Amino acid sequence: MREIGLKELKDLAIGATLLGTGGGGDPYIGRLMAEAAISRYGPIHLVDVDELPDEGLVVPAAMMGAPTVMVEKIPNGKEVETAVSQLERILGKQAVAIMTIEAGGINSMIPLAVAAQLHLPVIDGDSMGRAFPELQMTSFHVRGLKATPMVLVDEKGNNLVIDAIDNPWTERLARTATVAMGGASIIALYPMTGREAKDTMVRGTMSKAMDLGRLLGHSRLDRDEKLQRLKTQHQAIELFSGKVVDVERRSGDGFARGTLSCVGLDAFGESVLRIEFQNENLIAVRDGRVVATVPDLICVVDRETLLPITTEGLTYGQRVTVVGLPSDPVWFTEKGMQTVGPQYFGYQVEHVSLAEGPITTAETNGGWA
Amino acid sequence: MREIGLKELKDLAIGATLLGTGGGGDPYIGRLMAEAAISRYGPIHLVDVDELPDEGLVVPAAMMGAPTVMVEKIPNGKEVETAVSQLERILGKQAVAIMTIEAGGINSMIPLAVAAQLHLPVIDGDSMGRAFPELQMTSFHVRGLKATPMVLVDEKGNNLVIDAIDNPWTERLARTATVAMGGASIIALYPMTGREAKDTMVRGTMSKAMDLGRLLGHSRLDRDEKLQRLKTQHQAIELFSGKVVDVERRSGDGFARGTLSCVGLDAFGESVLRIEFQNENLIAVRDGRVVATVPDLICVVDRETLLPITTEGLTYGQRVTVVGLPSDPVWFTEKGMQTVGPQYFGYQVEHVSLAEGPITTAETNGGWA
């Protein structure tokens, strides 16, 4: 067991936002929430899933919706507690631990806030090792768990319990309800036993996020040193460095969708890069060639500080660096690729392995580049 | 207590469809459902609400969605039973009676089917004395009851429990879920005590529907005799007789919306009539003048048989008669008119009283006639 204090919270917020690959909400807001919870209820305990009893109830909690809306509808701890407590009531069992669904500025923090409030530990890990836009995009789903019963609440006091026939139906019903609730909701879902958590989760995501956050937030390291450590310690690849020349945004169906366009600087001076996002960055195309796709992580960071920039924070003129990080192996299984591969998102391209080093060719651009 | 057998079922189907004022679903389908339930589970008992214990749980059940979709997604008794049973489970109480929310070909019958299956009586009455398109449009709402907890189920097995802050929010959340479920769902809502039912319901709607059905289905009476009895026994007014020349339909938001246009025959030979509908007929405009509006009943019937025609049954060339019937007094209260008056539906016109006899002038056509 390990305590999360204010210092760790700061690192976690930065690192989780990087792993959020553009989605998962703003790190500043998430950190404020968790800080408030710690100062009110005391420190948060991070546990390894193996420390939990096999029969104990584990409840993941998160915020659902477009990050652009999430930053406008800050949840208070009360709503998250309502969601978790209602799930406990439905199942007739008290939770032994809280879990995060995904890494991200808000969604790594919400579980901390509710854990502090309920005096429960948070498990070191999540269900993605990053962030993804739909709720069936979890290692739980790939490994056969159901997302229901699922509870949704909003800041007004509306409350929904979903029990769907499968996880894509849960996603559909929860998404339309979230849109009706104003574009964002607080959710508790995938209730599971400690045993199921051990068998299905992506481990260590919180520790990894804190490591990444400590590195990127380091005041004594310059850009090149940080980038070098990202490469050697986290298998990062620099995909691009340049200037944002356009951000086209489309929201309305419960997601923040859009396209980022950049022109290159320095080594990338002759190049252009385009990134398509749906809450998270999905696919990166450099000079008409696919250089990275989901499930690998496409992270847009400030070119000087290497601090992560979420999709809602992208603006014209920013100097950015784009790094690729390899995804958790769960996504390279057959069901994993069906669930989050580029083709699921409508891109007729093959996944391009980051592990093969800097890319000079690509399979196809499917006519949409 | 009174038994509903096959003869009564036939009358009820016709009369309830008339009171459905175009909405509430097809009478033939509804009747088949109730017949099947009676033949499997035995006769249905119709009770007066005063026969129920004050403390007993009363559960209204219905189908929600566009009638055009409802006739394509026929529920089986199982789904309705699931909805009612889940509400019982949530409240920790067994129902003592089933209630209908609205009059209509399907929504008068669904409660009968589930009542037969659960061996419970059905109360003689509903919450509208007619049909309306939204779930807060009930005498329960006007008199202060909450629609939640509300259960929605679909034919696939998806299941939702809504607990909203007020009835308009319940409508919004249930409507979006219904659209996501394919446009129609089975619902159990407004759970209440026998005392609350006595204080808030519209009484006698089932008996009235059976009376109307017996009259309209009568084989020995001709058109003029039926019309005369509708006028003397039910305060009906003949608003129009003519031929359907256009039916413009717009669906997609969970409602069947549209406009019916007719040209006159006989005494109405020089006239044209337009009816706007949202599941139910909302407003009738003859020669540019408003001649009837919600909450009064605007019923389109076959010109010869006077049998009711639902909005989804309207087609070019039909010879129709349009009759107006006065609504239950609950709708003429201030909250009643706010809830279902023409202005709620977006028409900038005043309600025109049917009781004043054949209309020769109208307040205004609000620029939309």
From TrEMBL, chains A, B:
Ranges for domain S-Me-THD-like C-terminal: 166-353
Domain named S-Me-THD N-terminal: residues: 8-163
A Pfam cross-reference name: S-Me-THD_C
Protein name: DUF917 domain-containing protein
Superkingdom of origin: Bacteria
